[in-house]
Amino acid sequence: MQVHIPGREKLILSHLVLDFNGTIALDGQVLPNVQEKLTELHSLIKIHVLTADSNGSAARECEGLPVELHVIGKDNQREEKRKFISQLEHGVAVMGNGVNDELMFREADLSIAVIGKEGCATVTLMSSDITVTDIIDGLDLLINHHRLIPTLRN
Fold this sequence. Notes:
Layout: E1 2-3, E2 11-12, E3 15-19, E4 25-26, E5 29-30, H1 34-41, E6 46-51, H2 58-62, E7 68-71, H3 77-87, E8 92-96, H4 102-107, E9 110-114, H5 122-125, E10 130-132, H6 135-143, H7 148-152
Parallel strand pairs: 3-6, 3-8, 6-7, 8-9, 9-10
Antiparallel strand pairs: 1-2, 4-5
C-alpha cells in the first residue's frame, strides 16, 4: 500500500498491527463489522493482532479472521510491543488505545489512536499521527487510503 502525501515522504505500508482489547474488541469480543473490514483490508496489507489477552478470548475471537495473532506477556507490555514493531520490515501502521501502545506508536510509520468505549491513554493519543473515534473509521482510512492525505499533508 502506497500513499503520496504532499510535503511528506511517500508512505509505503506492508504491515498493520492492531491492539486487541479497546481497539478491535471490547470486553474480549471483536466489535461488529471488524471482521468484514479486516477481510477487505487483508489483500492490501499483512495484519497482525498484538495482545496480552487480558480476557483470555483473543484466540477464539480471532479465529477465522485474516490476521496473525501474537500474544505477549503480562509484564513489560510497552517494550514487548515496541520490540515487535521494530522486528517487522519497514512500512508499519499501528492502531491502539492503551498506555502499553505508546512505544509501538513511536516506532511505527503510521499510528492511529482509537478513542472507543475504553477511551484512549493521553500519552498514546499524543504519540499518534491520527485519531479516530471508531475502529471502523480507522480501518476505512487504510482501505480508502486517499483519506489519509487531507489529514497528514503539510
